[in-house]
Structure formats: structure tokens, C-alpha cells
Amino acid sequence: MQFLIQPYFVFAVICCAFSVDRIAVAQQNTPPNIVFILADDLGYGELGCYGQEKIKTPNIDQLASQGARFTQHYTGAPVCAPARCTLLTGQNLAHAEIRGNRDSGNGRIFPGQFPITNEVVTLAEVLKSAGYTNGAFGKWGLGPSNTTGSPMKQGFDRYYGYNCQRNAHSYYPPFLDSDEKEVRINNFAIPGHLRLPSGEVRADDYRAENYAPDLILDEAVKFIEQNKNKPFFLYLPFVEPHVAMQPPQEWINQYPTEWDEENGVYRGQNGYLPHPRPRAGYAAMISDLDEHVGTILENLKKFDLEKNTIVIFTSDNGPTHGSRDPKFHVGGAASTFFNSTGGLKGFKGSCYEGGIRVPCVVRWPNHVKPGSEVLTPSYFPDWFPTLANIADAPLETTQTLDGIDLTGAMKSGANPKREQPMTWEFNGYGGIVAIRDGNWKALRRNLRKGEQPLEWELYNLETDPSESKDVASDHPEIVAKLEAGFLKSRITEPDFPIPFLDKLAE
What we know:
CATH class of the largest domain: Alpha Beta
Strand order of the largest sheet: 7-6-5-4-8-1-9-10-2-11
Structural class: alpha/beta
């Protein structure tokens, strides 16, 4: 049988091919979209791709298989607000404006946290100057709407979520913040802190009409669709798995009832809300987070944005620490049961590895090799120069940036030179300083307790990643060098004072 090819068909095929070629060229010349997903209190060992054997995280594991897994990535701080400050301002905790969790003091029930100032330039502002549309969806923690710290005053075009991290202690809060307005979402909201010393603990007693993470996710998906034809920066500081534990029941049901037979129900004795199956509940929160990550990835694929989007997934600090009742961690979390730190020492609020080393996965098609590992030590201040470079955005800031560009490390495994050690100066939990220079890590605690804090500790992370042997007495010259460099570089921050260090600087 002979087929006749009509001229108009040939013309259509040629036009279609030409159109596809133009789209491909246009995508090559378009700056990549940036999606930065920040989990809350997710430990280094709580993902399958980092060795977790009990909790289901298929979407994040797949993301890791499609990109790179960082093995020595650190948050900028061991708790919420200062970690976000180091990420968005590119400064370490010896220079950053926010060095601990502190409320703004504006007299409201949910006052919001101490605000960053107009003077500091955020990553969002730099990307905006390069033509990006910026959206933030989740927990903010860097200043209420009526202050300089509002996301809408710091480079974001759209914001939806919890402005105040205290409001984020409940997954069924009374309201969420939409841009700079409070939008009521639950008429019968659930407070994040209750105890039930006796009687039956029922998960449904701590649920209301609207589950905030789903609402936040919906708004983030809308942002992707609305901005699919232009470069965007999508910042997703999701709230899970931070307690209180209020995950969807369908996820709880997927985990064994035998897990909770040993310790039984959690009654709120370590803060936050009771839960009838705390181990299953904690795993469910992480699986629910993983499902939300999957939804974001599905929508990038749906709108044909995968190839021209870099996706970064990480956590703001280590997993929740222990408390009064040793059977449970804060809020009933099961960080020990799940080996949430992956064998590292310490938890949230600590500058030991378990408190600050966090999972980090990056997918960037045609740039980052699938299934690769990045061995370079890195931390939150590095993302400012890295993403500005990827976006071809000018690094015009009033503050000195403390990070390095990780582009080469992600693409080829190159080990970029770091001129200054990675540094943490944490105002909370008694006051802590930590310094990592190469494989050496020095740490000093209790800086705000009395006239004389604890002595410096020193660890060689190459041979002792679990920080089991303090070798400060064997290498006093290394401790002295790191301390002197830190004190010379440090900037005093009166809003987050550490008097012992302030006196040394005089």
C-alpha cells in the first residue's frame, strides 16, 4: 500500500519540530527555578537514603537517587530562628543578626520572633534583583508582619504559613498568615501544649477542621502553577516533624502497633500534646513530610519544570532531644528508637554533630550526577553565594557573606577552598561556640553560665565522627589557633549577648 504525504502535513511537522527546538533553546537560556525545602527538626539519620530502616521516605529517597547526597552538611544553628537567619542572609552565627530563639515582644499571643533588620540583604532580595518571583510557604520565624523582618519586606512576593514559630507548635492552629494578614483556618483550634495525666488518650481529640500543612502545600502548588513560565524561587520551610505530634491517621496506621507496646501512650509529660502511639506518630510525621515533598516534585513534572529546576532538601537542625521522662524525647518524639542522629552525638540545641549535621539532597538535572555523593563539608551560609551564582544574580549585599560557592562540589566533586572556618555562636542552651576547620572541630559550652565556662573540647572528625574522644589536651596549639581566629572574626551582637565572649573581645 502506498501512502501519500500531504504538503500541509510536512509543513506542520516542520513547524512542530521548530517549535520544540525553540522551547528547548529558551529553557537553556532561562535561569533555573530554585526550590529549597527545609524540614523542621529532621535528624541526619531519619531518611532511608541516610540509613533509616523503619520510617518510610520514598520520595526523598528517590530525589537522592536522582541527584547528590551531601554527607557532611551542617545547619547554620542548632535551633529554628537563627538557622533560618544564616540560610537567608548568608552569615554565620558569629556575624548574624539572629543568634538564638527570641520573641519580638510585640505583646501578641503569637508575637513572632525577633526581626531581622532592613540593613541586611536576604537571598530572596538578591534573586528578585535578577528577575525571580519569590514565594515562601511554611514557618518563617524572622519577624512579624508589622516589622522589618516580615517576609514581604525581605524580598518575597508571596507568603503563606506560620509567621510565628510558637503558632507552629500546633498543626491545627487558629490562623495562618497570608502575606501580611492573618487568615482564620480553625474555629475550634487545638493548642500545641496540653497534658492528660489520666484517662484515654485519643489522637482525634487533638485534631480540628483544617490541617495546616495541607493548606500550606496547596498554596505552594498554586505558586508553581502561577509562575511556571518565569524563573521563581520557592522557599518551603515545612513544619514537620517538629512536635506536637498530630499527623494524619492514615500514616499512623501504616506503622506497627508493636512499636508502642514497650513505652505505651505519651501523656504530654515532656511538653506539647499527648499521643496514643508516639513512635508510630513520630514516623507518620516524617512520612507525611515525605508525601508533601512528593507532591512538589509531581507538580514540577506536571508543568515540565524538572529539567530547569534545582531542588534542595535539608533540615534546620538535628532531631528533638530528651526531657524529664527518659522514655520519651520532647513532645513524645522517639529519636533514640529511630536512631535519628545516625549514630552522631547530641540532639537539637547542641553543637555536637547530632545537633547540627543534617541531611541534604540536591537534584539538578544535567548538572548534578544522579546517585552521587558530595563529601565537601558545607553549611547554610554557603547556599547564598551558591544559589546567587546559579541564578546569575549580583552579590550586592551590605553584609559580609561567610559561605562558599558549592556549584563545583555538586557538579564534579571539587573541593572548594574555604578561607574561614565554619563557625557557630549560639546564644541559647547555656551559650555554645563551635568551629570546624578541615577535620578539626573545637567546641565550648556553658558560655553564659557563671564566670568560667567549660573548657574547650577538640575532635578529629575524620577519625572520630561520633565525637567520642576529646583530644584538646593533646593539641592545645590547635585549640588556641581556632579560638584566636574566632575572636578576631567575631562581631558582638547586643541583642544576643554572651558576656564571657564580649569581655574577651574588649
